[in-house]
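Input/output pair, single chain:
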Amino acid sequence: MNPIFYGLLALLAWAPLPLGSNRVWAWAVLVVGCCLLSIAWLAGYALGRFTVSDAFRRARWVLAAGAVWLLYIGLQLVPLPAEWVRLLSPVGYEAHAVTAAAFGQPPTATLTISVDPHATRDFWFKSLAYGCMFCLTLLLADTRRRLELLLKTLVICGTLQALYASVMVLSGLEYGFLIKKYVGQGTATGTFINRNHLAGYLNLCLAMGIGLMIAKLGGEAVHTWRQRLRSIARLLLGEKTRLRIYLIVMVIGLVLTRSRMGNTAFFAGTFTAGAIALLLMRNAPRSTLFFLASIIALDILIVGSWFGVDQVAKRIQGTEVTTNIDNPLPSEHRDEVDREAMSYAKDFLLTGSGGGSFYVTFPAYSSSGILGFYDHAHNDYAQLLTETGIIGFALCALIVAMAAVQALQTLRRRNDPLMRGTAFGVTRAICWLAIHSAVDFNMQIPANALTMTVILALAWVAASVRAGESGSR
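Output:
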């Protein structure tokens, strides 16, 4: 098998370990790794060892949108005549003037659209890494064997994260990534800092695990008692049972995060994606309906009752729309932050303030009632709009929408169980993203963003891999 494909799997497994790669050195490792793998593939292509996959050709329009995104973020870094910046971003022009005056510097003839070019440079490098990973997934996951191995890698990574997080909570050891936890004690965080980000990662792995389970449902017809016995033995000892156990372990970890929207988005996303899939899939086996129902019913009634889903429900019921003045916790100021972020977005409506610049721009808009420092908005939609404007927001929305359409078309047109299961997983992940992004910043965490990028690419892989392609090219 292609060693570059193994490198892709290794990078995908490594990403969540060092605090979700949400540290400079950690995301730098991801960027370097993605670029090195891409260079290795290009070298192999130049030598005639690799070919362009059908999925890569089919995804040409989304690849074009991704290239425009990189060019657009790069444009935020290019020094432009000051008058151009004044026309494109009047408030950004004023911010540059205030900064220059604060340091006693004279006005310059050229300015950048970004109010913080250093942060935007880092943002561009992360975007480049995600783009490379997207392309590598299209190019390398070009057979059934590789596709299934990639899905299993995500399931195993999610299971290990959930198992580790659960052991830490239930044992009271409370260690994160090689260090003792200093925040989030009493809740499952795994190797992440924030429980909501572990919940997001588990949602992504669960999405693909459920899709893989759907691909394995059904089977041969059973007529005699010997066939029934063999079928029961295979069920108890076979891969489907192990996979179902992995899913249960991940659900336990998700419940133990006590993440309100993480758990809400899991069940709402599963229900929504399941309803869509059952409507679109031709000749869907009855076992698919029973399995999706068991995910919701069995996991809530049995797993949830043992591991505290009632505590999650209490947190959801206790959530107030307005901030409690008597207990002004910064984490409960999300609604105020969202409102202030909308004022921020209006001032940078067209081009944004620059990728990654939220932390330096938002303090000018935060009211005195908002306590604490916010390096991210607790809303991926708001942060994307403030940093990249309508142009960047539309580009990202277009990329996700194209992946959703491709996944839905695969559900409707293909009969191959693995491809339909993969398409279901992509649909389920997009439903989670649409829900959870409204109240958190999972896509600002490199591990989650990288994993979501790979899942989006699988929409075209599921539409392109032929039924007979089981070996590696």
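Residues 320-331 have pLDDT under 50 and may be disordered. Residues 10 and 139 are 16 Å apart (CA to CA).
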